[in-house]
Amino acid sequence: EGVLIGACEQSGRRRLPRLEPARDYPNWIAESPPGVLLLDPESAQPLVGLARPAGPVTLLVGPEGGLSPKERALARAHGIAGVSLGPRILRAETAPLAAMAAIQTLWGDFAG
Asked: How many Å apart are CA 112 and CA 102, to the nearest integer?
């Protein structure tokens, strides 16, 4: 919890984010919230082509090397859309940051 508090203080947030316990992939997919976007470099759907979501967005990012075809198929079977950030393959730790910056630009605080 100390890390969460420190991160909130540094970023000026007034609310602590929820820290959920780790779950295995199939269970998380089965119980995933609405608004999940799978960052998938093989997807034909670019992030910039999506309409502004009505609610919160949750990003599903695979490990270094990406999700397996079976894991991507499981996500799609549960209605999770795959989106691409462009032609470059980003590292697992930088892809979510790039996606959050793009989301802020398209639909968030940076969008006029």
From this structure: 14
Do 38 and 73 meet the contact criterion of CB atoms below 8 Å apart?
Answer: no
* Neighbour tally for 33: CB within 10 Å: 9
In which element (H, E) is residue 38 found? strand 36-39
pLDDT surpasses 90 at 17: no
Integer angstrom CA distances of residue 80 from 16, 46, 68, 69, 112:
26, 14, 15, 14, 28
Phi/psi of residue 111, each to 5°? -80, 110
Amino acid at 51: A
Q: Tell me the pTM.
A: 0.81
